[in-house]
């Protein structure tokens, strides 16, 4: 293996990219959500210039894109990979606090529909790219603000699962989505044309981007070279 470290690293990265099968669907939802809001596009571009423009792409700068992080988390909240998540099998009999008995061997899934419930999130049925950014800004500085990160999981947001079985690839997914979105935002003006039926529909358990979505794309002069 000596002398082949770069080749092996490239192969591993390529394998990671192709194994992220939900990335394209999420990115489509991100694009139609972002490019229908001119102010959000402007603010995201400003953040990229201020954060990435100083040091280029690295782990710290990607983590510093907090508005973009909020956009990704909000897109995942609105469009989870499935409305039924966290598939499990009870390894032993479980008795819930209300007395309900889950027999050993029972397959279980958790509904993700509550993530758009207005009782959990204000205006939960509307996309707000600033949602987690604003929560982070308003939070007590002494508290752990990592809970607002795209990669963080909680009972109120488990797009990547939750607990010990949360998706281990979510950090790679975050970096990939951010690098892609940075390149699209800085290099192109995009006009998204949404069908009369809406930008997405539900097919079975999944939120699917409408196949009639169209975009007009124009090259722009980027403020910084990525």
Automatic annotation (TrEMBL):
GO process annotations (BP): mycotoxin biosynthetic process
UniProt keyword terms in alphabetical order: Heme, Iron, Metal-binding, Monooxygenase, Oxidoreductase
Domain of life: Eukaryota
Cofactor: heme
Positions contributing to heme binding: 167
Xref: InterPro entries: Cyt_P450, Cyt_P450_E_grp-IV, Cyt_P450_sf
GO molecular function terms noted in the UniProt entry: heme binding; iron ion binding; monooxygenase activity; oxidoreductase activity, acting on paired donors, with incorporation or reduction of molecular oxygen
SUPFAM superfamilies referenced in this protein's UniProt entry, alphabetically: Cytochrome P450
A Pfam cross-reference name: p450
Family as reported in the entry's similarity comment: Belongs to the cytochrome P450 family.
Identification of the protein by name: Cytochrome P450
Organism annotation: Penicillium crustosum (Blue mold fungus)
């Amino acid at each position: 293996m000596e002398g082949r470290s770069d080749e092996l690293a490239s192969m591993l990265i390529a394998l990671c990219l192709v194994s992220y099968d939900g990335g394209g669907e999420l990115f489509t939802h991100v694009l139609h959500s972002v490019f229908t809001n001119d102010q959000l596009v402007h603010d995201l571009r400003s953040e990229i210039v201020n954060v990435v423009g100083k040091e280029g792409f690295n782990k710290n700068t990607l983590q510093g894109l907090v508005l973009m992080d909020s956009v990704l988390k909000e897109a995942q909240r609105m469009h989870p990979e499935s409305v039924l998540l966290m598939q499990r099998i009870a390894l032993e009999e479980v008795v819930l606090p209300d007395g309900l008995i889950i027999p050993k061997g029972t397959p279980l899934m958790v509904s993700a529909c509550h993530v758009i419930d207005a009782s959990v999130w204000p205006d939960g049925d509307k996309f707000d790219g600033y949602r987690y950014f604003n929560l982070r800004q308003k939070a007590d500085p002494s508290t752990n603000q990592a809970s607002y990160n795209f990669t963080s999981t909680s009972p109120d947001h488990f797009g990547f699962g939750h607990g010990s079985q949360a998706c281990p690839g979510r950090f790679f997914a975050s970096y990939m989505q951010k690098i892609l979105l940075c390149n699209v935002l800085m290099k192109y003006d995009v006009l998204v044309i949404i069908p009369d039926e809406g930008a997405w529909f539900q097919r079975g358990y999944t939120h699917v981007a409408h196949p009639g979505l169209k975009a007009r794309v124009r090259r722009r002069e980027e403020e910084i070279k990525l």
